[in-house]
Design goal:
158 residues, alpha/beta, five-stranded parallel β-sheet, 5 strands, globular, binds ligand CA2
Length: 158
């Protein structure tokens, strides 16, 4: 699909959902998560999605229940979801259930590579319900997820 910023999108927006503590990005542990803030990532994601004619609803919460509510909302409000569930990735059956109820493309994103970190980060409740997983590429992972979704959504329309 050629990028055509002038083409108006008939698609619902992509929800980009971020879990606990990601609001602190850029303030600590830059060696793991990079120096980019979540606001910087939002700006870059909105620009990249716009270049594909796609809209974005970018959100962050520290509450597991709010992530579940947003995933339920995505059933009718989103064309696809990019999810960095942060620590809930490794703990939340509720997120797994909500993702299984969502019949849309889902890309799991992590800034770090959880498989190169502590053993408790090696299991994800999100991955079995995700269309694809991108990790270890810091903020670039979000942009790759947008590109992947643009292709998947175009293929779906064919
Ligand atoms: O690498 C990722 O994107 C993670 O989802 C980030 C989570 C972590 O629990 C996952 O295992 C992997 C942690 C997000 C906390 O981010 C902070 C950033 C700066 C300062 C403090 C926390």
């Amino acid at each position: 699909m050629a990028k055509n910023p002038k083409a108006p999108s008939k698609l619902l927006p992509i929800y980009v959902l971020n879990g606990p503590n990601l609001n602190l990005l850029g303030t600590r542990e830059p060696e793991i998560y990079g120096r980019t803030t979540l606001a910087d990532i939002e700006k870059a994601v909105v620009t990249r999605a716009g270049s594909w004619g796609l809209g974005v609803s970018f959100r962050q919460t520290n509450a597991e229940s709010e992530l579940v509510d947003w995933l339920q909302e995505a059933r009718t409000g989103a064309s696809a979801v990019i999810l960095n569930a942060a620590a809930y990735t490794h703990t939340s059956v509720a997120l797994y259930d909500a993702l299984k109820a969502l019949d849309k493309p889902i890309i799991e994103v992590h800034l770090s590579n959880p498989y190169a970190r502590e053993p408790f980060r090696h299991h994800s409740y999100v991955s079995p319900a995700a269309t694809g997983v991108i990790c270890g590429l810091k903020d670039q992972g979000y942009l790759l997820a947008v590109d992947a979704l643009a292709t998947l959504l175009k293929d779906k329309k064919k």
